[in-house]
Amino acid sequence: MRTQRFTRVALASAVALILAACGTAAEDGDGDGGPAAGGEVGGTITMARATWDTGWFQAAIYAQMLDELGYEVSDPADLTRDANTFYPALAQEEVDLWVNGWFPLHDIYLERPLFSGQLISEPIEKVGFEVEAGAIQGYLIDKATADSMRITSMSDLADDSVASVFDADGDGLADLYGCNEGWGCNLVIDDHLDELDWGPNVEQVSGEYNDLINDVVRARVEAGEPVLFYTWTPNWTIDVLVPGEDVVWLESPALEEDEGTTSVSGLSGCAGADPCDLGWPVNDIRAVANEEFLDENPTVRRLLEVVEIPLQDIADQNARMAMEAEYSDAQIRQDAAGWIEANRSLVDGWLETARG
Questions:
Q1: How far apart are the C-alpha atoms of 323 and 32, rounded to whole Å?
Q2: Taking the complete model, does pTM exceed 0.70, yes or no?
Q3: Same-domain status, 126 and 111
């Protein structure tokens, strides 16, 4: 495993993220840190959100719908966590739910190893399909380099002379701008480096993702310099660096356990074939909650089961957010409120179903 740390992060942002990640539900939510008591509508809900900002809009939508059902919902912005700290807190009933689950990417957090090595299931339940089969992931390079060197696959980087083109720091390895430590994709990229044919020639550069993309990747593309990076959808990145125009998706072999689930048909900007085999399973974005909390709150379960948010609506909001130097949580809440009003008939139907 080869990982660099990218540390150019604004101090204020870093402090805010650390405080959010380390805060307890008792500090940010319902006082005792536990799930809403009883099965009646009108209890309290401690809700978290992910550190990736592409999921904040959806978190605000769900929080406002739960508020309309009569629950007292903590602001998800007050409990912003990485996946590796959220899921243990969920299992321990320190938090009740979030709507930023990625599956199968987050399956690794649903089991816990015992000292004996045996795995046991955590009391965590995936609920509904916020975005079904709409979350794709993969590796991209600048289109100029792809065209000039005829690169279509990550496997091309198994050739030292190809990998060296993406070596920005002179250590002999291609620099792959990847994910924050604490994100599931960070771990999967490391697995790719360890197990796939191109891995020995590549290292992951980790840091604050938005800084990596804005300060390094985008700058290199605009300067006509080679660059290799990871991204996902929905994400503002591919609105700013457009596949097929500025960058291209590369195909890749998959991990053995993922084979057969990683092809995407009709993918715009794929440098390889159609369907494009990205080497990453297509993910569902889903709500995830503590099992006991759901059993005690069937109204919440029913709501989570039926809500679906169009991928394009998420992408549009993410793009607006990315265009601003600063975008406040108040603006995100306003975006969510606007979406609910624009889809009022649909939302009212979901709420009626939830009330049962």
A1: 39
A2: yes
A3: yes
